[in-house]
Structures are given as C-alpha cells and as structure tokens.
Amino acid sequence: MAEEQSEFERQEKALAEMEEVRNLSSKAQDLVNALNDFVNSGGSHREMEKVAKSLANYPTHRTLQQSIMKLFIMSIEQMAALPENRTDGRNEDSRLIAQQMLEGFKLVRAGYDSKLHGREINDNANPSLYIPFV
User: What is the pTM of this model?
Assistant: First the structure.
C-alpha cells in the first residue's frame, strides 16, 4: 500500500509541475518558444557562442545580466533534477553535466568562510539561491 501511495504522490507531483509550466505568462512562453526555435532551427555552436557573448557583453544593464544568469542557472538546476525516466541518449549528457556542475558548486561553496559572506552556508542550497534579485 505504501508503494502505491508513493507512486500516486509522484504522479500528483508530476501533474502539478506540468500545470505550473502550462501556466506561464505569455512573455515567458514566448521566451521558451524563441529558445526552442533558435536551437531547433540550426542554432550552431558558433551561433550559440555569439548569443552567449552578446548576453554577457552587450550593453545590458548589470541588473539584467544578473537576472539572466539566475535564469540560466535555474535551468541547469532543473536539468540536474530530471528523473532518470525523463532522459535518454539525447539529453543524458546534459543531465549528467548539470549534476556535476551542482556538485562542484557545493564543494567549492563548502570551502568558503560563511562569515566572509555574511550568511550561513547551506550544503543543500542550489547556486541560484546565492544570486539575489537586485
């Protein structure tokens, strides 16, 4: 019975997550669609690199740069959290690298003196929690 209940709970959580994604604002949905279209219609490595450089170097307000970085790090966190049954040969390396990036962040973060940064270090915290909204 406990196994059935945990499977039910897993399915309920998955359904709630799908609902959350379906309820994106129109601006957010436009961004998701634009990113999908870009990478799906021949966004070569060189073109992706140019976009990345543009986002980092274009005369964008520094607050916006911080928010963009937070979005991308949150994407890495979500990729790392994908369950194994949501990966296959097409995205398994992305998931593995995302997991390794988070592990590396936590190892480096553990070496910092929390007094230096003025807050306690939470070993379970994802990197996006350390990037404040400005």
Answer: 0.76
